[in-house]
Design brief:
heterodimer, A: mainly beta, five-stranded mixed beta sheet, B: 114 residues, mainly beta, four-stranded antiparallel beta sheet, 11 strands, 0% helix
Chain lengths: 111, 114
C-alpha cells in the first residue's frame, strides 16, 4: 500500500473552511484515498473516501488531483469539535486490505 | 446496523502477566478484522489482520498473538507482557461484500504495563 505525507499540524478559525492536504505520489491505479479522524482517546472515525472523482458527504469534501498524487480534505465550516488528528491513507480492498496510518495532521480549531 | 465492541476500555497489568483483549462485531458476516496499536502521540501500527476463522496474518514481530475462534470474534493475547506493550489497542472491521469499503474502528483499549 502506498504511503502518504501530511503536515504535522494546522490551525483553523472556527466557522472557516479547513483544508487538509495529503501527498500520495506513489498511489497505484486501483488504490483509493481514505480519510479518517481521531479525537483524543477514541477510535478513528471514517470521514470520506474516493478513487479519482471529487466526493462530498455530510461531513466533508474530498478533492483529488487529476494525476491522483495528492488530495485535499475540506471541512467547509470547522467547529471546535473538529479538533482532532486527521489521517490520510491509501489502500485497496484485496483480501488482505492493510490500512497503513501515518502520524496524520493535528488540526486545531480555534474560537 | 453493524457495531463493533471492544473491551475493556482501560487495563493496567504488571510486567510478565498474561493479556487477553476481545473484539466482537455484530451485524455483518465474514468481515476482515484488524488489530492496531498506537503508541502515545504516534500513528496506528497494524499488528494482525484476519480474513476468516483461524486465518491470522502478523504484520510485525512482537510479543503478542491473535486468534479468531469465531467469524465475528477477534482476540489479542500475550503470555507475558512487557513494558513496551503499553499503548492504545484498536480493533477494526471491514466488509468484503463491497469493494473498497471503509474500515470501522472500536473505541480502543488503553493498556498500561507497570
Amino acid at each position: 500500500d502506498a504511503k502518504t505525507t501530511q503536515p504535522t499540524s494546522m490551525d483553523c478559525a472556527e466557522g472557516r473552511a479547513a483544508n487538509l492536504p495529503c501527498n500520495h505520489s506513489t498511489i497505484s491505479g486501483n488504490e483509493y484515498v481514505y480519510w479518517y479522524r481521531q479525537i483524543h482517546s477514541q477510535g478513528p472515525q471514517y470521514i470520506i473516501h474516493g478513487l479519482k472523482n471529487n466526493e462530498t458527504n455530510e461531513m466533508a469534501s474530498l478533492i483529488i488531483t487529476e494525476d491522483r498524487k495528492s488530495s485535499t480534505l475540506i471541512l467547509p465550516h470547522a467547529t471546535l469539535r473538529d479538533t482532532a488528528v486527521y489521517y490520510c491513507i491509501v489502500g485497496r480492498n484485496t483480501g488482505g486490505f492493510k490500512t497503513i496510518f501515518g502520524a496524520g495532521t493535528r488540526l486545531f480549531v480555534k474560537a | 446496523s453493524q457495531t463493533i465492541h471492544q473491551w475493556p476500555a482501560t487495563l493496567v497489568q504488571p510486567v510478565g502477566s498474561p493479556l487477553s483483549l476481545e473484539c466482537t462485531v455484530e451485524g455483518t458476516s465474514n468481515p476482515n478484522l484488524y488489530w492496531y496499536r498506537q503508541a502515545a502521540g504516534r500513528g496506528l501500527q497494524l499488528l494482525f489482520y484476519s480474513v476468516g476463522i483461524g486465518q491470522i496474518s502478523s504484520e510485525v514481530p512482537q510479543n503478542l498473538s491473535a486468534s479468531r475462534p469465531q467469524d465475528r470474534q477477534f482476540i489479542l493475547s500475550s503470555k507475558k507482557l512487557l513494558l513496551s506493550d503499553s499503548g492504545f489497542y484498536l480493533c477494526a472491521w471491514k466488509g468484503v461484500d463491497r469493494p473498497n469499503t471503509e474500515a470501522f474502528f472500536g473505541q480502543g483499549t488503553r493498556l498500561t504495563v507497570v
